[in-house]
Amino acid sequence: MAFLILVRHGVTDWNVNGRWHGLTNIPLNEEGRKQAKEAAVALQGIKIDAAYTSVLDRVTQTFDEIAKELSLTIPLIKDPALNERDYGIYTGKNKWEVEKEVGPEEFNSIRRKWDKLIPGGESLKQVYGRVIPFFREKILEDLKSGKNVLIVSSGNSLRALIKYLKNISDEDISKLELNFGEIHIFEFDKDGNITGSQTKNSGLYKGKI
Fold first, then answer.
1. Which residue is catalytic, options 9, 21, 31, 184?
2. How many other CB atoms sit within 10 Å of the CB of residue 1?
3. What is the DSSP letter of 136?
4. I want to staple 143 with a disulfide (CB 3.0 to 4.6 A). Which of 2, 40, 117, 199 is the partner?
5. Residue 9 among known ligand-binding residues
6. Can you name the residues that pair with 76 across neighbouring β-strands?
């Protein structure tokens, strides 16, 4: 038996201000660091053997806070395959201003539709196309060998992975929301099959996101 632990990064000033990060490197704010520490508290008692993150600062800083709180000394593997969705022309823009410009239907399509292409950016389907091969080739082998694995990443990369793990349909994935510091834990057997799952919340940012 092994555990796969998924943690979304803590909040940033851009999150608070409603701006799309995409691949922009924005650090955690103080509330985000607090959320990461609270996530660590929620994970106490689970031995972590391996850790993976994207290469983005807000994600690696979240891991650093968790590692410090749990006194982890394991190596960290950073890979761009786990990066947030590239928001292309919308990167850095205020999402609520974009909603006013394009209307609620197009806005919801940009944010949540499975195969919505963004000029200069990615769809969630394309994010899935890089996250899942990485999971199958790298992380699943750790789980099959009995290692408990921590993945810290961004909302869309984790949504893509959860879609795969829970076999969520292309239509229903639009309903999946992950808050800051949210934790999803999956239990795997030695053959790589999921035998259970649960969700934990740390100190969640209550603002509009």
1. 9
2. 11
3. I
4. 2
5. yes
6. 51
pTM metric for this prediction: 0.94
Residue 112 marked in a binding site: yes
| Residue 33 assigned to a binding site | no
- 184 carries a ligand binding annotation: no
Q: Is 142 annotated as a binding residue?
A: no
Alpha carbon distance 113, 116 (integer Å): 5
> Can you list the domains of the chain with their CATH numbers?
2-182 (3.40.50.1240)
Q: How far is the C-alpha of 209 from the C-alpha of 205, rounded, in Å? A: 9
| Cα distance between residue 197 and residue 157, in whole Å | 18
Question: What's the pLDDT at 208?
Answer: 35
pLDDT digits (tens, 9 = 90+) for 22-77: 999 999 999 999 999 999 999 999 999 999 999 999 999 999 999 999 999 999 99
Rounded Cα distance between 121 and 90, Å, is 9
Of 84, 122, 182, 184, catalytic: 84
148-197 residue pLDDT tens:
999 999 999 999 999 999 999 999 999 999 999 999 999 999 999 999 99
9 a catalytic residue: yes
